[in-house]
TrEMBL record, chains A, B:
Keyword field contains Transcription: yes
Domain of life: Bacteria
GO molecular function: DNA binding
Protein name: LacI family DNA-binding transcriptional regulator
Ranges of residues in domain HTH lacI-type: 3-57
The entry's keywords: DNA-binding, Transcription, Transcription regulation
Native organism: Streptomyces cavernicola
Amino acid sequence: MTVTLADVAARAQVSPATVSRVLNGNYPVAAATRERVLRAVDELDYVLNGPASSLAAAASDLVGILVNDIADPFFGIMAGAVQSEIGGPGGRAGGERLAVVCNTGGSPERELTYLTLLQRQRAAAVVITGGAVEDAEHAAALTAKLQRLTDAGTRVVLCGRPPAPETGAVALSFDNRGGGRALTEHLLALGHRRIGYIAGPEERTTTRHRLEGHRDALADTGLPRGAELTLHGPYDRATGHAATVELLRREPALTAIVAANDTVALGACAALREAGRRIPDDVSVAGFDDLPFSVDAVPALTTVRLPLAEAAARAGRIAMGREQEPPGGTATIHGELVVRGSTGKA
Amino acid sequence: MTVTLADVAARAQVSPATVSRVLNGNYPVAAATRERVLRAVDELDYVLNGPASSLAAAASDLVGILVNDIADPFFGIMAGAVQSEIGGPGGRAGGERLAVVCNTGGSPERELTYLTLLQRQRAAAVVITGGAVEDAEHAAALTAKLQRLTDAGTRVVLCGRPPAPETGAVALSFDNRGGGRALTEHLLALGHRRIGYIAGPEERTTTRHRLEGHRDALADTGLPRGAELTLHGPYDRATGHAATVELLRREPALTAIVAANDTVALGACAALREAGRRIPDDVSVAGFDDLPFSVDAVPALTTVRLPLAEAAARAGRIAMGREQEPPGGTATIHGELVVRGSTGKA
DNA sequence: CTGTTAGCGCATTCAC
DNA sequence: GTGAATGCGCTAACAG
């Protein structure tokens, strides 16, 4: 029914092995022979059977990219950057790798499921983006899974999450703590003393680190840590909106709000406008990540720029073995405070 | 080295065939035996070999999702929705399918490459999102490729692009033309007569249809089609910004701008503000898609809401065979005009 | 540089 | 309900 490598071999009057060698290009073949084979491939419209190839070679060209939420530009940008480094030539068969993005939805279970699926496919590499869930049980399961993946020869790179010691996984982590600190220091320097904080979902590394940076800055100034002015929620505008309403209720004299990320900050801005508060005259707002739309917000958002695309591209290159791992298998990537119109004097 | 099905069989004291049957669940097995096998799987930490399984079964659990730009929320939302319908149980082995998102970057070549890669993997289904490039040569190649995929038993669903006749692919297309028309009619009704149009990239179905809708509306009113007030560019804010500057140069008396999508509209708004034009008092602005951030723009964007998530979810279900195909294999999905603060009287 | 041989790990006939 | 045998399509040693 379907055309196989043997059919191509017959048509080109060579052995199957030769066809395989031509296709994989990892072996010397006479130019004339190669020509003949390629012509036969073309004429028969032959497409290599991936599963068979992977089975025989005990390796595949699949590269997995795990993201928490594919609809969030934060992850979209990283996924695109990783993929652009991977899609090119360099694979075993035909010089093409299949870079696949898997959407975990932030669920630890789905994260593990996808890793199993990738393990099952004998993926060449896996890049895991975004923060991790801080649950002891899940952490243990994840560690074990990563261990097994690296043992099986799959290269694992974490991008935007803390290192996973003892697993053989490379980690490029963001300095969320430093960024959070810089943001709050900026607000403190502007004279703000009553600062609301809208944190990300609980039990996640990213959330915790950004929040810790915020509290570190407050502590340095001798201010109370302001736990009562901290709310948690998903990284979406609805969270920013609802949390802002609640913060204003708890502390009407609020002069600044720091949001978990830019999307949340946008929701906060909307709620403030609805409440009749001017930004930044009445209340300053700051985000995190510097997503593309942030510069177009009105007023433009003060935020911490994370080099998402650059970091992800690097993760992709490391996953492909085209760039050396950082010393110790770990590197920290720093953000940059970007001051715009949404923050002003208290 | 790695644990195989035979190892599991030995440990459970059954034949490899029985283990296979337990794992695939497509065959009656005594409860006690199943228990024993599952325990052995657990104890040995066995993971099915995907390539071997796919080779033997001549089918795989891979489902591909093609997107033009994964960093664009338009595609992120659709990809997430498709994936949520696919990730669940229902696959052959272990009840899990691997839904993979492939980023074509809008390049026809990469689109074909990814399709070949998925064909090579014997993908169970493929969902292609977003508009198509309107190039005769590419169209022919694509048609042939889709034909071959469907012939090989891969279900192909197009979501957000026109039908591909004779290929066996199901199409859920957006009524971009109707949406574009509604938007411009809205502006005309507000009294606007000098309307700039910032279109998407040239040679794409989505771009053309939205633009045609715009021109249809103009023609109905007896206005010139305003080709000289139409500019093209990628779906990003930079395009919106640059095009607006140029439009204002060509026609300072402009009172409205229609953008290819919301992201472009945001860039247009930024340029207008920089030029000292108030929105909508001096110039009205409209977008397309109703992406999540559009409601938070200042002023909030008038746009055409496309039910991206719903449509993509439906495409996913059809790809999985969990929902019947629309009659004739084709359905048109209509957008909805959403009037907000960014448009007003001329 | 090319052909021959022997599996890769599993699903699926058939028997029992 | 279960076991034994066969082959999926390809790659990777070996020879030559």
